[in-house]
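The following block was generated as part of the benchmark described in Methods. Ligand: S-adenosyl-L-homocysteine.
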Amino acid sequence: MSINLLDLDAAQLAGFFAEIGEKPFRAKQLLRWMHQFGEADFSKMSDLAKPLREKLSARARIEAPSVISDNAAEDGTRKWLVDVGNGNAVESVFIPETNRGTLCVSSQAGCALDCKFCSTGKQGFNRNLTVAEIIGQLWIANKALGAVPKGDRVVSNVVMMGMGEPLANFDNVVAAMRLMLDDNAYGLSRRRVTLSTSGIVPAMDRLRDACPVALAVSLHASNDALRDALVPINRKYPLSELMAACLRYLDRAPRDFLTFEYVMLDGVNDGAGHARELIALVRDVPCKFNLIPFNPFPGSGFKRSSRDDIRRFADILIAAGLVVTTRKTRGDDIDAACGQLAGKVEDRTRRTRRVVEIQPC
Ligand code: SAH
Ligand code: SF4
């Protein structure tokens, strides 16, 4: 089986070129062809010598995952259902705004972490996405949005907030993010790539050393008892350890704050007491809060907090000097979502009201 070059980051591609007796700058040319011009056909790479093109065709291929469906919402949000084999699919969602375009990228088919309010968690874990399947989501978006071959920067921001826990697929996610940052590939700054994690503490430390992009942490609870119940990984890495890891991460983060995501669950975590507990919890951590109105799904057992309750909760945090944003609903008419995404292909007709993440960068 030939090697899929979309699976390799710049260093790995240079290694592959060394193995086949080619110079490192050729690997850079190939990166540009693949990622900036969206070219998958070696024979069209006009500045590569013919013998090299033939050598590549014999040993390698450039294969992005295929798209099952491509939907555009009235507000410009666009959603692709991406085939990852065996009847499984993941979603990526593009959210255009005046000054930026954000792509929400999936990292796993399913998720093992079983957060109680998450439909991806309810589906269980299927498998880690490959580098080609992760970076392929940018490839697909750039093509569909007409960014290639002109090299336009339509996707200006990436949030790793789709399906799956990115830090549980560490190596592939880091390789894909390195491509996002590479000047010969997507050339995004570290501030414009945000990884969202439920709080796998050792992996947060590894990320800080390997590829410190902007970080969002899914907090969702103000004390350990509540977080143990909602986000089971908390039983392994409780809040004190999580807060310490956040502070360590901030040493190397591309911004001087991180984002705490907080899903608003009616009567569960949205009271004034929870808000006060949160203020004490994050006292030492430079942060911003992103409140996410819960997206209901059948059988979840939770309800979305009312608009008034969300406003009251936000006001308490704001009065304590915290910066708080509430997530906007986008792309409702195409079921566009991060955090509540399609698993099996046959699930894709499900109609629930969903919300997509927009990280201010
Ligand atoms: N696994 C990572 C990233 C993917 S989920 C994480 O948990 O951070 C992206 C965000 O959507 C997370 O904050 C997640 O907790 C949230 N989310 C999951 N299910 C949701 C739902 N039903 N409604 C609203 N937000 C949800
Ligand atoms: Fe996994 Fe994130 Fe869903 Fe939790 S919220 S189950 S970590 S995808």
